[in-house]
Amino acid sequence: xxxxxxxxxxxxxxxxxxxxxxxxxxxxxxxxxxxxxxxxxxxxxxxxxxxxxxxxxxxxxxxxxxxxxxxxxxxxxxxxxxxxxxxxxxxxxxxxxxxxxxxxxxxxxxxxxxxxxxxxxxxxxxxxxxxxxxxxxxxxxxxxxxxxxxxxxxxxxxxxxxxxxxxxxxxxxxxxxxxxxxxxxxxxxxxxxxxxxxxxxxxxxxxxxxxxxxxxxxxxxxxxxxxxxxxxxxxxxxxxxxxxxxxxxxxxxxxxxxxxxxxxxxxxxxxxxxxxxxxxxxxxxxxxxxxxxxxxxxxxxxxxxxxxxxxxxxxxxxxxxxxxxxxxxxxxxxxxxxxxxxxxxxxxxxxxxxxxxxxxxxxxxxxxxxxxxxxxxxxxxxxxxxxxxxxxxxxxxxxx
Length: 400
Description:
Blueprint: H1 2-32, E1 66-67, E2 70-71, H2 100-118, H3 122-135, H4 139-151, H5 155-172, H6 177-193, E3 195-204, E4 209-212, E5 215-217, E6 225-228, E7 231-239, E8 242-251, E9 256-264, H7 292-325, H8 338-371, H9 375-378, E10 384-390, E11 393-399
Parallel strand pairs: 3-9
Antiparallel strand pairs: 1-2, 3-6, 4-5, 4-7, 7-8, 10-11
Helix pairs in contact: 1-2, 2-3, 3-4, 4-5, 5-6, 7-8
């Protein structure tokens, strides 16, 4: 009888050990995409066979399935379906598929982590699961990461982990039904235990940064309730690395605190960029003005005066023709030459207009010549210039 009892106890231990190894093997095998078995979700039960409580608000841990006073591990999906890979961040390429050797190593690490978790060594188990997550993240791996964080008192990390695990499990479907069912009650219980602190800045925040336990707080979250683990925390403001103000506070489980920091940042004025020698860069030298506009304007004026001279010559030729035709002055002119007389008047008007425009162009060109003169040439001495009308047009004269 004694031998039979020993054999029975040995058989039970062997079965329990085999089940635990198969359970861990299935959790990592799902990430490697082995087999074709469909996951089966089972409602968690206590040792007496009764359904376990979903969550207990306010308790030290949100127990889902109790066995020897420890929360039970969520049963991961059975091996056979590839696990849902965490989606790549927007705008970034997805990570490369891990090699078979990497998945085999991750499988063994997950088995080791499950054993450490069962033994209550959550710190060592957390390191194992974090390494597995670097190879491939699944809702089951994220769930056990959150479970270790919860047991170590990292309530904010645990809350975020359970929420993400539940969201990813729901998106993956029946493969992670256990995670989808068990993660939300734990997240709900943690929300009741996490403390919250609202940082209020009195004054003007421009260049200073707000730090909570050495971690930078986004300026957009100043004045917003920030979730924190229960315990001691340091809230500080720093400007260019120098401490402006710091306050040490204690946050109770589920408590609410408000911390006020006085910050008066000065206005920031831009300074000139230094050169290699350390002094401010000198202003760029101004370019020497070009006299091309002056030359172009004067040339246009001269061309217009030439046109005025052409029309003046046509006018004189027309007048000579009329004089040859007419006898006895204007009264002796043949009425048939009236168009010639009108043409002569048009030549007179055109030559007068072009003469005026030409003179104006020459004058403008002369003015631009002085305005666009280089500084050294302008200071060399007095220069006089002028336009003198002549019988054939105009002449540009000056003293240089």
